[in-house]
Input
Amino acid sequence: LLLFGFVLATCNGQDAVTLNNYFSSGMVLQRDVANKIWGYGVHDGVIEAECVLKNGVKTENVLKPVQVSADVWEINTSPMAAFTKCRFTITENLILDDVLYGDVWICSGQSNMEQNMGNIENSTDEISSAASYGSVLRFATVANQYLLTPNADHNPEMQLSWSDASDSASLKYMSAVCFLYGKYVYDVIGVPMGLVSSDWGGTRVEAWSSQEALQTCDVPDNDVDDPNADSVLWNGMINPLLRLSVKGFLWYQGEANGGYNRDLYNCTFPAMINDWRSKFSENSGTSEMAPFGFVQLSTWRPDTLDLGFPVIRWHQTADLGVVPNFLMQNVFMSSPLDTFDPKDGYPGNIHPRYKQIAALRLAYAGLNVAYDDKSYPAGGPFPEVVSRDGGMVMITFDADIEYLEEAEISGFFYCSETVDKCDEGSQGTKWMDVAKGKVQQVDERTLAIELTETPGGSLAYIWRESPVKELYKLPIYSADVFRMPTPPFKHQLD
Output
């Protein structure tokens, strides 16, 4: 592991002026808001901005850099519409060319976000077909790096400088969930996408959170010198990007918290979301309520009773089971619990190869929440009313459902205690399978579950690390073309 330090450029006239490593020709800036471009050295000249709008109209502007500190300069650019292309002449020998305006998404988390296009199902075909998108899908990757103390002027190393979808050699190493989400969204809205991967496998939410966010959740200190120490990835891989105007954020993480501060995740994750939004909006044109999408934890080991993943999935929704909700507004998610991958090694197993499924569901939800297109679903059907009448539990969903009787399991689990008591400890031995024959679909939105157990107790749905082993074979899906699965939930019975 390398701890990248920040080396300031030596100022020696205009030749010493440099750009922050994030900026390179062929990049994407956020449409419709002001953007900052910054770098190092003393810039006492001017920057020329030559732009061409989508309709062919040309504009030229001269921008005067502001010296925000002794060794850091920046400019503020005017808002531009999607498809505008600009050329910024920073100095005679430093030019930022082919800068396209579109929507910028920062993608973060651990190894399932880091998993690249070369390590997914049908990777060769996916990479080949992506080339036809050319310059409308662009991407970059921040290199793994951590800092023990925050430094807003840190110049992050880049693993991949800006490339586009026609660069198959580079695309192979780009985050699959991040890129595929952008592709699927572009297919609908037709706006260029700038996809920025800043992630690190095996890392915890605490490492990606600022000290201020962690303090709101009373997280125990962890100040060791490694990538999982508190705030070190925030310091090294997110905080240096705060000046960027972005559309929103995507997140795939939580596996590393299944056995670490598990029962704080319902605070630490929402607190991180709020903190990122606040700090980005204070430093850039990013919205105070920038959309935030995440992928619920997928599957791992078959037949285990370990509670780490089921509980983290619940905590990912602030213990409400569905997003957006009143605690997590403008948040959306993908639930891929039907993507179990039996392949040993990597990819496979805890890193399912079927990232297309996770990304497509995330795109559907993002179109609804981030782009306000309500013709797409924000998620799968979710219980609206749960009632018990003697030995029968009736569940009414908020959308039409299809209950798959051919699924491996009924999907439901019963525990005789309260929902909190049922999830105490590390093993889900208190959650007992409800037999398949005891669940029936009554009408388009209602299930009837026969429970002969004593009154009270709790009911949960797909409350296992790997609830099913077949693709697309969870018990409940939406009865429409989107086939969105019902996410895991639990409910205390009267």
User: Anything to note?
Assistant: The two ends are 52 Å apart (CA to CA). Residues 58 and 298 are 48 Å apart (CA to CA).
